[in-house]
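Quick bug: Dipeptidase output formatted oddly.
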Amino acid sequence: MVKHGITVDLSHNSGKTISDILDYMETHHKNVPMIVSHSPVASTYGCEPYETIEQTAERMDKLGLKKGDDHYRLAGCYRLIDAPDAKRIAENSGGISVTFAEWMMDGVWPEDITPKQAAEMIDGAVQEVGIDHVGIASDDMQTVAGVVGFAQKHANLYADNGYMLDAFDRGATGCGEMSKIMAPVVDELRKMGYSDEDMAKVFSDNLMRVYEQTWK
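Here's what came back:
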């Protein structure tokens, strides 16, 4: 991929695979940045992305939380990126692009993703890796209906302890469609103190910098 100018993307991978690729890239291609093209950061929600549902239940029990409590969550979605991996990507000049898909959130799902929640997902990544290493995802699905059907038919393909199907069953099928929410997301980021320069980096410049370094 590096030889042929293809950007290395770590989304859709397990924690072990991400770690292995990071190790390899840091050894053999130290100055070639990588990206996570469409995944939120786990620390935004206080989640542990690679733990099982049973491990989450034990953690919730130790915290004295029960189903129905505001801060109770089923588990961290397997698609979330943990903070150490995100920081390693940033240290190698790469970027994390968050996606506004409801089932990738914190295990406590609203009816729809609000602009404020989308801004919080961006800000959560910025807090971990800095303003120069965060972008927004380009996979605006509009609806996850096709994903739901495929996942239900091929449930055995997902090593996520049933997290995704449980999320779909609970109604977590929304997407924060960019065409609907991008303008008010800008308003929410301004309320958080983001400047026009900051938002230019998040909405385009950071990813374009990576692509200029990796594409041929």
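Actually, after a second look the formatting is fine. The mean pLDDT is 88. Closing.
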